[in-house]
Amino acid sequence: MKSLHQCSNEQWTSIEKRLSHAIVYMDNDCAELLHWNGGMTRFLQAGAKDVRELSSFESGSKSDVKAMFILSTPLYDVGGEIIQDIIKASHFQYVVVVSTIGSHVHLYHKTGTLEGNEQTLMEKFEENLLIWMGNVNYTAEVVIIPLFTAQITNNLFVTPAFSSLYPLLSTDIKRVELSFNKTLTNKAERKTFDQLSDIENGYLPKPYITNLKMFVSSLNGLLEKLDVREDIYYIGHTSRFVAHELDIYSPARNRRKVAKERASIVFIDRTLDLSSCSTSQYDCLLDEIMNILPRVPGHHNDVMVDMSSLCSVHGDVGKTVIVPGSLSRSINTTPQSSILNSLVNVKIKEGLMDVNRQLVEAASSEKLPVKLTGKPGRITHQQLSSTLQLFQSNYRAIQPNLDILQVAMATVQSLSKKTSHHDNIVGIEKRLLQMADDKDSPSLLLEILKILKTESVKPVSERDFSLDDILALLIYSYSLCGADFIEEEESQFQEELINVIVQDKDNLSPAVKSIVGETVNKSIVMAIVEDVWSKLVAIGTAREDLDQFSSIIERGGVMSPTECKPLLNQIVEDIVNPSKPDLIDIKHKQSGMKDLLKSGFGLFMTVYKPRPSDHPLLILYIIGGITPTEVKHIQDIVNKTKPDIQVLIGSTRLCTKEDITLSSFSSDNLSFNKS
């Protein structure tokens, strides 16, 4: 079976064959995919003249006769209009359009049905390209290449084009109901939904279903490259929607008939456990870096690294002159050999030692005067910084070692910015966890309220804990314990939160501003806080449908404290458990006559129940984001159990505490916008 890297590389190679002398225009999501697959260097080495943003403000010069457009959205939408604007403002004679989504989805997006000839639709767009160029004798080509994955480590990939896909909560039920009933003329056919389990794919809004079909189309492209026939499993309602779309997708059904290999894919809703991703208890170095350093603008899975100290510039001038570094690997580095594996798959101390070892080896290979200082087995950011300075202004030595230099610099900058605030937050989280298992302890809500009241009387700049911290602790607590809090306590908390937000209206963080909006007054904030609380309750009830995985609290005893047992850990442990316990909450998507016959025979005899561990490849895909620490925990379980299968971990994005706060409170998850 091909590796994920091989599959992705083949797709990018097919693009490279068309790049010679072309100006390339890409949307942000495709640019992020390129960023993790060789970057701009890859395209320039393949013969591209330039790589630019897909924007109506762009155009080619008179000497530019060839253009390539790469986009992750439907052609008959805003993306197509931007292509038209650029072509009409240029002098192109040869245009190639690369779409990452299948022609079936383009047909559904334009017509609302899968009935029709999708090939005719693609040919019509090619005709439009010729018209926009102003000469039907020029050359126009539309190709489908399902670019989908950005591979972070050997066993971890993300899908930037779907980073905003986040599971629906019970707060979305009435909106789905309203949207569906608006499409009906006969009042007798109208539906009433009381819970997410009442909602089937056919009831979801068309834009939402279109986006799910786009996701499935791109995923099918990956499975086609892997040449696998998959068994589909899911846990969570949004995962159920996705599983259904993958099951019925026509090209996927055709692929399954001829695929040579077997695989299992398990879709998991992030919202079933938000405690594990809203915590500050990190177990790997990448989590530290992701939560401290700023993101690359327009990206969801990488950070900016200030590299100016290695260059011939002085002071703060370098930060505005030198393009920031990042964590993405260079074109000649494979995911298997990337230093990022050490940032994710081992503990922080071991990761630091690996970064230091590779940095020292790089300096030694360039014959720089390395001085080994410090205690054996203990690496500090000062030691790393000292070795990094050996490379200062030595561009001959910097160029071949950029991967390790950028990662080492990111490590130095994140560790040097770490303060006692982090340890204090961890202490609060641990205290809340112990209180959750102690019936005699005060309410978790009252404990957080006490912190909020204590901090609110201080000037914003002198506070130990911010409103961002308070919101993250609320998510942590509701997801951990459920929504069983006393109504009076919730009312007290809401009132205090409203007062603090209004009081701090001129000093709100970007995250809180995103939630409450630009206009801050008491009436608006009251409505916002009420909405936030309804979502907290929805988060607290997200596991109510589960039996086997209904709790993420592992009760303590006389000699051991209460611990949080993340949902992903529980799922993976049961999947790879050699004793093969029943997987009550992990649903198998049955389809076709073969599965129906199995179910029928099951009435009369014991029939083997399919399990995700049945096949050589297991893909776990978390809808809504995953943290590097969670990836490490999954890998630890797999390494300990040593199942005879390969486990790939995928997600919509790498997430931080702030990402989870924004996705939970400020995003419109029913209208996540890809089209």
Automatic annotation (TrEMBL):
Coiled coil: none
Pfam families: Sec1
GO aspect biological process, one term: vesicle-mediated transport
InterPro entries per UniProt: Sec-1-like_dom3a, Sec1-like, Sec1-like_dom2, Sec1-like_sf
PANTHER family found in the cross-reference section: VESICLE PROTEIN SORTING-ASSOCIATED
Family statement drawn from the similarity comment of this UniProt entry: Belongs to the STXBP/unc-18/SEC1 family.
Record-given protein name: Sec1 family domain-containing protein 2
